[in-house]
Design goal:
elongated, 20 strands, four-stranded mixed beta sheet, single chain, alpha/beta, six-stranded mixed beta sheet
């Protein structure tokens, strides 16, 4: 398959010699035709000049292996028609076919040979986040053109239907800015295809502070860590990113300290669990890059239930009556690990609420990048994800704040409007969503009757928090 791939390109050129674009994909690539059609139209009419070449998709830099920058085939490869025709008419394609079949490229992967061949006519790869080789987590977003892997036709069909349902309401986002290849791209191997250089810092905060960009209801972006499925409390129009952790990752260095008492039996957890811990801050960074202007970020696990009406009330009260304009916030169900020389942390399954400018400051100061490196390859490699988040915020003087509206270990008070997030202990994947729907319905019914309970005193973080009560999140008895 690898050696005959360029022969397949030649056959495609002979069969369809005059088209504007060629699209290369694998059988387990999901292609969202509405978005692809818009992308090709916008590229042709608003982005590319008549003579511009194009070779675009989810990129990866193999220059250190003397291959070059490639586009990975599973995520879909978009090539401009006259680019591929020039490759053939110049005689270069025939030479590349010979190299691949019986020459120096005989052991080269198919996406290597496409890149190497195009490089002979000075066409280089362009990265674009609309093409995703390693994840279909965001298949429903109108901005996604193709993703991989989707190994069964019924899975692809479900993704296509979810994408189509969301497309009409969001197609206005598909403009020239979206269609343009990344000016600066993350060429390292990564689960997500993404541009580099998101707008952070003073420019972002200035934009956010303009009243025209601040709706009455504060904005929030969600990150949900799990198997990539969308929980029932997430709506299609939400700012949301599904984080599907890698199943394999590099081993920790011997110098990385293990916190045996704090970790307990989790030290023996399988490798995919530890990979999720080590890659969590990478995902947090991507959340900011996807949604750089929001007022709040909400981090949750797949097991969490988030009661959106109560969350919206909480955000509104925090923004208008509780927090100072420049006040930081890192809040949820807290637990004290200072005795283990870690920090006071927020337990991730109960939901974590972070103020937008707090997370952006972590990135702007360079501390987020530092923490990512420590978690992936250095002294925090054996630290749990909620430890790392707290330790990282502590580097900029932001400490965890406890709140009883977030419950890590129980949803027994789920009908109370005072609860924002919880983690039910249910078993069996088929029963989870049904159970969650019941919790959401009961909560919504009581919220209508008891909304008056949601006031400034409820929204404020605990002045005195019971940091040793891991099983229940609550303020001190005198509050």
């Amino acid at each position: 398959a690898q050696r005959n791939y360029l022969l397949g390109l030649k056959g495609m050129l002979m069969t369809f010699p005059t088209v504007d674009f060629y699209f290369l994909a694998d059988t387990d690539t999901a292609v969202f035709r509405e978005s692809l059609d818009v992308m090709m139209h916008v590229l042709q009419t608003s982005v590319l000049r008549a003579a511009d070449d194009l070779y675009m998709g989810h990129g990866y830099d193999l220059s250190s292996s003397n291959v070059g920058r490639i586009i990975m085939s599973g995520g879909g490869v978009l090539v401009r028609g006259h680019t591929l025709r020039r490759l053939a008419s110049s005689g270069v394609l025939l030479g590349c076919i010979e190299e691949s079949l019986s020459g120096l490229w005989c052991y080269h992967h198919l996406d290597w040979t496409v890149a190497e061949c195009l490089a002979r006519i000075n066409v280089t790869a362009s990265g674009h986040p609309a093409f995703q080789q390693n994840t279909c987590n965001e298949h429903y977003r109108a901005e996604v053109v193709a993703c991989h892997p989707a190994k069964h036709r019924r899975v692809q069909q479900a993704m296509i239907e979810a994408h189509a349902a969301n497309f009409a309401a969001n197609k206005d986002k598909l403009d020239a800015t979206w269609a343009f290849p990344c000016r600066s791209y993350n060429w390292r191997y990564d689960p997500t295809s993404m541009c580099k250089g998101p707008l952070f810092g003073a420019q972002v905060e200035a934009a956010i502070s303009q009243k025209m960009l601040r709706p009455i209801q504060p904005t929030v972006a969600f990150m949900v860590m799990g198997d990539g499925s969308i929980p029932p409390w997430i709506a299609l129009q939400d700012n949301a990113m599904m984080f599907l952790p890698p199943q394999n990752c590099s081993d920790c260095p011997r110098s990385a300290e293990k916190k045996r008492k704090a970790s307990g039996n989790l030290l023996l957890a399988p490798k995919p669990w530890w990979c999720a811990q080590r890659h969590y801050m990478v995902a947090v960074e991507k959340l900011m890059q996807h949604f750089p202007l929001v007022d709040y970020y909400f981090l949750a696990s797949a097991s969490a239930v988030v009661f959106r009406d109560s969350l919206e009330a909480l955000l509104r009260l925090l923004d208008t009556e509780v927090l100072q304009k420049d006040e930081d916030l890192f809040m949820g169900h807290g637990f004290d690990l200072l005795q283990s020389k870690i920090a006071r942390i927020i337990l991730s399954d109960g939901g974590i609420l972070i103020r937008g400018h707090t997370l952006r400051r972590l990135a702007n100061t360079g501390h987020l990048s530092w923490c990512i490196e420590k978690s992936l390859h250095s002294c925090w490699c054996w630290h749990h994800l909620d430890w790392v988040l707290a330790e990282c915020f502590a580097r900029i003087g932001v400490l965890a704040r406890g709140h009883p509206a977030f419950q890590q270990h129980t949803c027994k008070d789920s009908s109370s409007p005072r609860l924002v997030a919880c983690s039910p202990k249910v078993g069996g994947s088929n029963g989870v969503n049904a159970n969650v729907q019941k919790l959401l319905a009961a909560h919504r019914s009581n919220l209508i009757k008891d909304a008056s309970e949601l006031d400034k005193s409820w929204a404020a973080p605990c002045k005195r928090y019971m940091w040793k009560h891991q099983t229940e999140s609550r303020c001190g008895d005198d509050e």
